[in-house]
TrEMBL record:
GO BP annotations listed: regulation of nitrogen utilization
Keyword set, alphabetical order: Hydrolase, Magnesium, Multifunctional enzyme, Nucleotidyltransferase, Repeat, Transferase
Ranges of residues in domain HD: 437-551
One of the record's GO molecular function terms: [protein-PII] uridylyltransferase activity
Protein name, entry field: Bifunctional uridylyltransferase/uridylyl-removing enzyme
EC number: 2.7.7.59, 3.1.4.-
Role: Modifies, by uridylylation and deuridylylation, the PII regulatory proteins (GlnB and homologs), in response to the nitrogen status of the cell that GlnD senses through the glutamine level. Under low glutamine levels, catalyzes the conversion of the PII proteins and UTP to PII-UMP and PPi, while under higher glutamine levels, GlnD hydrolyzes PII-UMP to PII and UMP (deuridylylation). Thus, controls uridylylation state and activity of the PII proteins, and plays an important role in the regulation of nitrogen metabolism.
Named cofactor requirement(s): Mg(2+)
Provenance organism: Nocardia macrotermitis
Similarity-based family: Belongs to the GlnD family.
SMART domains, A to Z: HDc (SM00471)
InterPro entries given in the database record: ACT-like_dom_sf (IPR045865), ACT_dom (IPR002912), HD/PDEase_dom (IPR003607), HD_domain (IPR006674), HDIG_dom (IPR006675), NT_sf (IPR043519), PII_UdlTrfase/GS_AdlTrfase (IPR013546), UTase/UR (IPR010043)
Domain free text: Has four distinct domains: an N-terminal nucleotidyltransferase (NT) domain responsible for UTase activity, a central HD domain that encodes UR activity, and two C-terminal ACT domains that seem to have a role in glutamine sensing.
Length: 805
């Protein structure tokens, strides 16, 4: 739309205001309503036209030694209806009285028209000094654009500011990061605030400008690629969406405003043809999280690209440390190994993510883009290794959140779970919820990881936490829809049919305990009976729902979980468990007859055969049953980077027969002859396994945390045989854990008759049948438990629930 601006000799800016108001009114036959983008462009043209004309009128011409430069929104060509005018009047040693006269004739009409004006009058050297001393001023001048007057003067400023920004970025980068973090702490995340600050919040327009500033410094790309499957259209689309919403916010409010108020959201959503306030909130969440992820990548990339000076230039290039098969750490990021082949390795996505979560290192944006472009789809059912990597990712606590967010913003998470699209950025309908539905699911997983040792099946707890609200965003009951989706996903993951049924039941009944405990009379026997009937009398399902109820409440928001709710649900679970039949304990696996024959032959035998999956193998050890054999055998496997996924350990006469299902951390497994040789050395005391494992753990990429997500737990049970007892350990896995456990048991003088070891992601559930003889007593069991817990990392105290308001 072309708007005629009357140029009066009086120099008044009332025509500018009148023309702006005409643009904002619209909606008439002869003057249709401009959409947000067209309105911004029209406002840029309008202000450029008025300033050009006014500048010529007051003597700002090409040969005057004066120039008018726009910064801020007008400089970026992002003029909003009530944005401030940010102008700089440059002069080149012009008579001060002349400069003052020109400035007065330029500024006063704008003030008289009540237009907000941020102005300055400087020479180019003065402006450059201001930019050098004031980071905020420097960032503003990076957007400078010539309006009228001596173009060479403007170019000197624009080029000088950008040149000094590039050369000085090394010394200013820390201040730039601190300024952004301070702004984020003050204004919160746009994606998870009821009334977000579109300009200053995390994921807002200031962050787009931060990316532009890093690009001008030649440290990163202002619009980094996010892969072909990125949800929401990528960073460019996110930028446009944020600008559109802020433009309509100005139009609705009738003044400059950055914070989107709830009462304006429906009108703005309708104006942008997005929908109601919930649809608008979802759009903003998607845009802000895309911007937030891009800023994380940009700052990390920029930090690695900073020019080195002095002795730092002589440092060696960062070492590439192996983390997993095809995955290494390089320069503080998780990247692909040089020999990785994403096109032939569909499970590589999850290995990269699991390594990132375990190490606490971010995934390289280049690596994620390459995976997005090259990695094929995982076939149904998933290989066992892919499921295990998913469980490792989900079991790392708070580190899971960042890893899943990175996968989701680059389109990879949606490829693994197409059902995720229905809840991605879905705003909560209840004010008690802090997060969007998808973020709430991942928050629940993080809290569930800290509760994983309370259940016998930590893998099903984590999967249930991930899927429990996946049915939201539809008109039907989300628990019923979610149960159907859980069945579909469980089959895709390759779970056993019985586990698929349990997972579906977790999702179907995830609200059963809190709803029943807070709404019904617990003293009424019918209350517990109703729970037992709904769950089919399954004590394992009851145990899983109890842990999920706590994790779900903690992830909902502050104050949702407390002593009152915990006591009610705990009492309901206690009464329900009494009404259920006891759960059978673990039993030893039968021993293969061929192994029995080898045991009779004597000597040490080590065999290695292919396992069920691409990367799994079975190691069988048959040897004389000597004290510490189990510790030595498990230690040798760990020393050769063979992770024990499960094991069945038993004795026959004077021989021990141990079968381990293992997965190499890197490459191919070692020759079984080498395993046998090291086992014999360990048994004879010629190989110090404890020291070797400590070195291996220390050198495994990064030193592991001395703490675990979940509190390790020991459960005792009787076998019905005098002098025997079952010890079950639930804990977080670590390098050589089984060897350390067996060594701790041996140090107490007990004999392990048989054992069943099960590693599910990042957690282990290990059962040992111990021969205690006549010395079985509570004090003896406490002594054994203390020895076992001494080799298991203690729990790190969990952080308080995060509050985004």
């Amino acid at each position: 739309m072309v708007v005629q601006v009357k140029r009066e000799t009086s120099g008044g800016a009332t025509d500018l205001v009148r023309a702006r108001d005409q643009l904002l009114e619209g909606g008439q036959v002869r003057r249709p309503r401009l959409d947000a983008h067209a309105l911004r462009q029209a406002l840029v043209d309008l202000h450029d036209l008025w300033l050009t004309g006014k500048g010529a009128e007051v003597g700002i011409t090409a040969d005057s030694g004066l120039a008018l430069v726009a910064v801020g929104g007008l400089g970026r060509r992002e003029m909003l209806p009530y944005s401030d005018l940010d102008l700089v009047l440059l002069h080149d040693d012009v008579d001060p009285e002349r400069v003052a006269e020109v400035a007065d004739r330029l500024w006063y009409p704008l003030w008289d028209a009540h237009i907000k004006l941020d102005h300055s009058v400087r020479t180019v050297p003065q402006a450059l000094r201001v930019a050098a001393d004031d980071l905020t001023a420097a960032l503003g001048m990076l957007d400078a654009r010539h309006i009228v007057g001596d173009a060479e003067l403007s170019n000197l400023l624009i080029g000088g500011v950008r040149r000094e920004w590039r050369t000085g970025i090394r010394s200013r980068f820390g201040e730039l990061v601190e300024q952004a973090q301070t702004r984020w702490r003050r204004n919160g995340e746009i994606a998870h605030r009821a009334e977000p600050d579109l300009k200053n919040g995390r994921g807002g327009l200031r962050d787009i400008q931060l990316l532009d500033a890093l690009a001008i410094a030649q440290l990163t790309d202002a619009m980094p690629g996010l892969g072909p499957d990125v949800p929401g259209g990528g960073l460019k689309h996110a930028h446009r969406r944020l600008l559109d919403v802020r433009t309509e916010l100005h139009r609705v409010a009738g003044r400059s405003r950055d914070q989107l108020r709830a009462q304006d959201a429906d009108e703005i959503g309708a104006a942008l043809r997005i929908g109601d306030r919930f649809d608008l909130a979802r759009t903003l969440s998607d845009a802000a999280r895309t911007v937030g992820y891009s800023v994380d990548v940009g700052l990390r990339t920029a930090g690695n690209a900073l020019p080195r000076r002095g002795l730092a230039r002589l440092r060696r290039m960062p070492v590439r440390r192996p983390l997993d098969e095809g995955v290494v750490e390089h320069a503080g990021e998780v990247v692909l190994a040089r020999d990785a082949r994403p096109q032939r390795d569909p499970g590589l996505i999850l290995r990269v993510a699991a390594a990132s979560a375990q190490s606490g290192l971010p995934m390289s944006a280049t690596t994620l883009n390459r995976l997005s472009e090259d990695a094929p789809e995982l076939r149904e059912p998933w290989p066992r290794e892919a499921l295990n990597d998913l469980l490792v990712l989900l079991g790392t606590g708070r580190a899971t959140i960042g890893a899943v967010e990175a996968l989701d913003r680059t389109g990879l998470w949606g490829r693994l779970f197409p059902e995720w699209g229905a809840v991605r950025d879905l705003p909560p309908r209840d004010a008690v919820h802090t997060w969007t539905v998808d973020r709430h699911l991942v928050e629940t997983v993080a809290y569930a990881a800290a509760l994983s040792t309370r259940v016998a099946r930590p893998d099903l707890l984590l999967l249930g936490a991930l899927l429990h609200d996946l049915g939201k965003g539809r008109t039907e009951d989300h628990s019923i829809v979610g149960a159907e989706l859980a069945t579909q996903i469980g089959r895709r993951l390759g779970l056993w049919p019985s586990d698929v049924r349990t997972l579906s039941a977790i999702v179907r009944y995830h609200l059963l305990l809190p709803d029943t405990a807070t709404r019904r009379d617990l003293a009424d026997p019918a209350t517990a009976e109703a729970v037992v009937t709904a769950l089919g009398g399954d004590p394992q399902l009851l145990e899983l729902l109890h842990a999920l109820a706590e994790a779900d409440s903690l992830a909902t928001g502050p104050g949702v979980w407390g002593d009152w709710k915990a006591s009610l649900i705990g009492e309901l679970v206690r009464r329900s468990r009494l009404a259920m039949a006891g759960e059978p304990g673990p039993e030893p696996d039968p021993i293969d007859p061929d192994l029995l024959e080898k045991a009779k032959a004597g000597g040490v035998h080590v065999e290695l055969s292919p396992g069920e999956g691409r990367f799994s193998h079975v190691v069988t050890v048959v040897a004389p049953d000597t004290p510490g054999l189990l510790s030595d055998a498990a230690g040798v496997l760990a020393l050769h980077s063979l992770r024990v996924l499960s094991a069945s350990l038993g004795t026959e006469g004077q021989a021990a027969i141990d079968t381990f299902r293992v997965a190499p951390k890197f490459g191919d497994p070692p020759d079984p002859g080498l395993l046998r040789q090291d086992l014999i050395r360990a048994v004879n005391g010629e190989l110090d396994l404890a020291s070797a494992l400590e070195r291996k753990e220390r050198d495994a990429g990064l030193p592991p945390s001395p703490y675990a997500q979940a509190e390790p737990r020991i459960l005792w049970a009787d076998t019905g045989i005098a002098g025997q007892a079952l010890l079950e350990l639930r804990a977080e896995d670590r390098i050589g854990l089984l060897s350390r456990l067996a060594g701790a048991l041996a140090s107490t003088g007990v004999n392990v008759r048989w054992a069943k070891v099960d590693t599910r992601g990042a957690a282990v559930v290990d059962a040992f049948c111990l021969d205690l003889g006549d010395g079985d007593s509570p004090a003896r069991r406490d002594e054994i438990a203390a020895a076992v817990l001494a080799v298991v990392p203690p729990q790190l105290p969990p952080p308080p629930p995060e509050n985004t308001e």
